[in-house]
Amino acid sequence: MVGRAIDRSKPVCITGASGYIASWIVLYLLADGLTVHATVRDARKASSVDHLLKAAQGQPGVLKLFSADLIEEGSFDEAVRGCELVIHTASPFIIKGFKDPYEALVRPAVDGTRNVLESCNRSGSVRRVVLTSSVASIYGDAIEALSKRGHVFTEADWNETSSESHQPYSYSKVMAERKAWEINKAQSAWDLVTINPSLVVGPSLTRNTQSTSIDVMRDLGSGRQKTGVPHLEFALVDVREVARAHVLAGFNPDAQGRFIVSGPVVSLLQMANVLRGRFPQYPLPTRELPKWLVRWVAPIAAGVSRAFIDQNVGYSFSFDNTRSQSVLGIQYRLLTDTLCEHFEQPIEDGLLRRR
Ligand code: NAP
């Protein structure tokens, strides 16, 4: 099946435009001369929109701001109206600091996706939706890689193990993606492409993000993990590649289905070792803690469950990113520079003490 060509003279709607990833997407769309309907929860809130207004300056494209909340029915109607392409990124990316995982994560992710897609259905104009999913929708725990050939996850894999009580963020992502495919299949006006990034790193255009991406670096450099880190591995990808993937997926008629967008897998200690080369004055961890010790202290020290430790610490895995390269044309940059740029960000923003 050949996909749809999108009319570039029509506005493009992007939800959650204030976010870490979305801000880069907005910048690329504006640089391409497009009109962008950018939704944020409160368009009057300076901390959500100032960096977008700044990014728009001097760009050939036009930025229009809209207020819309994922859990407010119909609130995306106005922003979506007249758009052929909708990029839906809005979804909470938090893994701690909440009491009720359903209200904090699952409801906004799943009901929000339904809400946005129903606006697309009502619009009469939308022809393609690009959804920001995640590798969290591909797998639940690293231990699952043991059953994969070469420990490699592909777009054919689905997370079938997360729940509201175990890995609720991952659960919110897989349920939202499943909901999107279900709604997509019930109509024929628009096709759906999902971008499934791994942990996104690299420079941020906004200080005002709750993204866990920013927290990981801050935790490494703050000294909290000075005594050691668990052997936890993360697949990483540069935020600019992820943003570019959304734009390419939006306009490439051949883009269909799911796209894993991920660079290499590194352990926390490997990340710390890279950073130490450039930032030797920071109290970065120098060793890995044994799993039994992590299992003992993590629930209290880091609010992480023993089930999470059991199923994620000490396991290796990777992702097949072939489709993102061959269909979308993504070229992955070396991550050493990205990691250092990412580490500098909370220092520049005053979130991590300058040493
Ligand atoms: P972020 O900076 O925290 O952005 C999340 C966005 O979601 C914010 O713009 C936020 O809007 C919006 N949002 C949250 N709750 C909302 C609600 N009830 N109504 C409307 N908007 C709401 O995080 P991010 O890292 O850029 O994440 C963006 C997307 O990428 C998410 O779907 C996330 O799951 C996905 N993702 C992220 C990573 C990563 O490593 N960062 C990896 C894979 C997938 P406000 O500013 O108005 O609060």
From TrEMBL:
Q: What are the record keywords, sorted?
A: Membrane, Oxidoreductase, Transmembrane, Transmembrane helix
UniProt-recorded name of the protein: Aldehyde reductase
N-terminal signal peptide: none
- Tell me the PANTHER family matching this sequence: NAD DEPENDENT EPIMERASE/DEHYDRATASE (PTHR10366), VPS9 DOMAIN-CONTAINING PROTEIN (PTHR10366:SF812)
Which InterPro entries has this protein been placed in?
Epimerase_deHydtase, NAD(P)-bd_dom_sf, NAD(P)_dehydrat-like
Residue ranges constituting the NAD-dependent epimerase/dehydratase domain according to the UniProt record: 12-255
Which lineage do the record's taxonomy fields give for this organism? Bacteria, Pseudomonadati, Pseudomonadota, Betaproteobacteria, Burkholderiales
Residue spans crossing the bilayer: 12-31
Q: Does the keyword Membrane apply?
A: yes
Does this entry carry the keyword Membrane?
yes
Coiled-coil parts of chain? none
